[in-house]
Amino acid sequence: MIFFLFMNIILKNKIIYLNDYKIKCAIGKRGIKSKRREGDKCTPRGRLKLRYIFYRKDRIKKIKSKLKLIPLKKNYGWCDDVRSKSYNKFVKLPYKYKAEKLYLNNNTYDIVIVTDYNSKPIKKGKGSAIFIHVAKKKLSPTSGCIALSKKDLKYLVSTIKHNTFLNVI
Predict the structure, then answer these.
(1) pLDDT at site 5
(2) What pLDDT shows up at residue 2?
(3) Residue 2: inside a domain, yes or no?
(4) Residue 17 burial (CB count, 10 A)
(5) Structural domain includes residue 121
(6) Burial class (CB within 10 angstroms; exposed 0-12, middle 13-18, buried 19+) of 159
(7) What pLDDT, on the 0 to 100 scale, is given for residue 19?
(8) pLDDT in tens, the chain (169 residues)
(9) CA 21, CA 167: separation in Å to the nearest integer?
(10) Is 122 contained in some domain?
(11) Residues near 56 by Cβ (< 8 Å), separated by ≥ 6?
(12) How many helices (H) and strands (E) does the chain have?
């Protein structure tokens, strides 16, 4: 008999529940919504698989995770242009369509957990680049991502596994 064990994390009312651990977080400026569209500043409601992690090797010296760890390079980006065949996918910069730069001067993308939001299949205009990343000061709202303090994000990264899902309710 085969058992599939999943690790479920819950996000509710700007708090992430991970086992007995509670983590305050920031969400999209306009809250959590079931029906999203590109640029609406909402965090998507639903079940998100955590896929892999980008990180700044020059700023994050010790990072451990069971997910794939990818050091960020200066030319890494994420396409958010609905005209592109690479919409809601990792791209290398410069890119002929609009793309979000992942290697930033601030610390927001020092650690980035990539989710599977709008990836199977990709629907153009439904929203892109839904990540879990480092929060700005005072957990100020995001453009749709989920943001945590760097300390809490490091803890989350060390705990999650390949079968981890984030349930946004």
Answers:
(1) 74
(2) 54
(3) no
(4) 14
(5) yes
(6) middle
(7) 86
(8) 555 578 899 999 999 999 889 999 999 999 999 999 999 999 999 999 999 999 999 999 999 999 999 999 999 999 999 999 999 999 999 999 999 999 999 999 999 999 999 999 999 999 999 999 999 989 999 999 999 999 999 999 999 999 999 999 9
(9) 15
(10) yes
(11) 71, 72, 103, 107, 109, 110, 111
(12) 1, 14
Q: 18, 16, 38, 35: which is closest to 26 by C-alpha?
A: 16
Q: Decide if 97 is inside a domain.
A: yes
Neighbours of 130 (CB within 10 A): 24
> What residues make up the domain containing 48?
7-168
Sign of the torsion formed by the C-alpha atoms of 103, 52, 144 and 134? negative
**The domain that contains 96 carries what CATH number?**
2.40.440
Task: Please spell the DSSP secondary structure of 89-154, one letter per residue.
Answer: SEEESS-SS-EEESS-SSSTTSEEEEE-TT-TT--TTS----EEEEPPGGG--BSS-EEE-HHHHH
The residue with tokens 């730069």 is 101
Q: For the whole model, what pTM was predicted?
A: 0.96
Query: What tokens does 46 get?
Result: 């639903």
